[in-house]
Amino acid sequence: xxxxxxxxxxxxxxxxxxxxxxxxxxxxxxxxxxxxxxxxxxxxxxxxxxxxxxxxxxxxxxxxxxxxxxxxxxxxxxxxxxxxxxxxxxxxxxxxxxxxxxxxxxxxxxxxxxxxxxxxxxxxxxxxxxxxxxxxxxxxxxxxxxxxxxxxxxxxxxxxxxxxxxxxxxxxxxxxxxxxxxxxxxxxxxxxxxxxxxxxxxxxxxxxxxxxxxxxxxxxxxxxxxxxxxxxxxxxxxxxxxxxxxxxxxxxxxxxxxxxxxxxxxxxxxxxxxxxxxxxxxxxxxxxxxxxxxxxxxxxxxxxxxxxxxxxxxxxxxxxxxxxxxxxxxxxxxxxxxxxxxxxxxxxxxxxxxxxxxxxxxxxxxxxxxxxxxxxxxxxxxxxxxxxxxxxxxxxxxxxxxxxxxxxxxxxxxxxxxxxxxxxxxxxxxxxxxxxxxxxxxxxxxxxxxxxxxxxxxxxxxxxxxxxxxxxxxxxxxxxxxxxxxxxxxxxxxxxxxxxxxxxxxx
Length: 507
What we know:
Helix content is about 5%, strand content about 50%. It is mainly beta. The chain folds into 4 domains: about 5-90 and about 180-210, no CATH class; about 100-130 and about 140-175, no CATH class; about 230-315, no CATH class; about 320-375 and about 405-505, no CATH class. It is elongated, with a radius of gyration of 33 Å.
């Protein structure tokens, strides 16, 4: 029989109605990807009759992708077919109820000083604007239209009281009742057909938005030297509209393609393996899965809606790193040359003559087992700290690394050196448009105000054309690519070192 306590929530179809308000059986399993989506798998209790059944499930997320739903009997004993599925993600709210009562007269509770009175008002316009999940579902243009509607006044209710119109409600609306079109939670309604009756645990899987994860790293250096300790965190963010209790959490790492409503294609970053420390089991374990890697949190956890949760996933010590300095003296305003041809740029003798005085501080470390790592490091932010002589940790820079597989090298920029200065000037420029050649010369000055000698890597970009030849040089250089060379220069304390070179271009 129909449950009278829920009569306003349920819609009748032909067949037997099954209400699934809670989730029984095994805890939910959630596989989170780091591009704002996840795969949820859980068991739901079903009690079906042979033939057509109507089932309502009200424990979904607010960002479920309806066409991703898979419902089956994992034992294979019951054949299930979804004849019809309806997904509702608009739980009841004041705005929604106003929209459902548009054109009707309802009571409004008005407070006047310490007195309360009821006035009647006719809802001319509710001002209801679709929730964000719906806005994303219908695309960017629909979002712009709805937001313009709301900000332009269309989002305000219009109520008629005593024959006069007013913007906004005169008081707190008192609705006669909830109606059949309202729900309290995001809900799936199914028309299911099965070949045999019985009670069993059905397996439900679906893709949902609103969940993501990312990696962060803290690296600590001693007062002297560049040996690092590393601690890595996985940060889970649940904005799905649902709390998952005692959930088994997995993270997928790899370049998984995911199409979005507007045709954008996202990829997933790679995660790292938790190292075993002091004989303790790591909180995150890893294994290969298909073409990707799967990382599993060892302990089931409660992942609450609108909660951010961190789990330590890697810890390593005595990582050898090297610090070096880079002077890339070219300063080019790219917007100034946007849309101009290379021939046109060549004729601009001022191109590439602005100087950048900053010397970059770079840090590099090998991701190898010999260096106490040798694990797949996912893309994430690295924060660097150094202990002062009093033991206090001081922040000394941060950067983002891309996915760094085992055996590769991580290179990061941590800031600009205070006591190192660079200066770059052009000393010669000559172009022959008839013979198609150009000569250019530069002088680079490096000044070291530190108390120790340093090596500075001077990077020069041969940007005029792809055919070039260094005709003069004060120091040896290395060719880094088809249009980049690098000088490595030792600069003593309080010394200024000068580098010069000339290049001949042909085209």
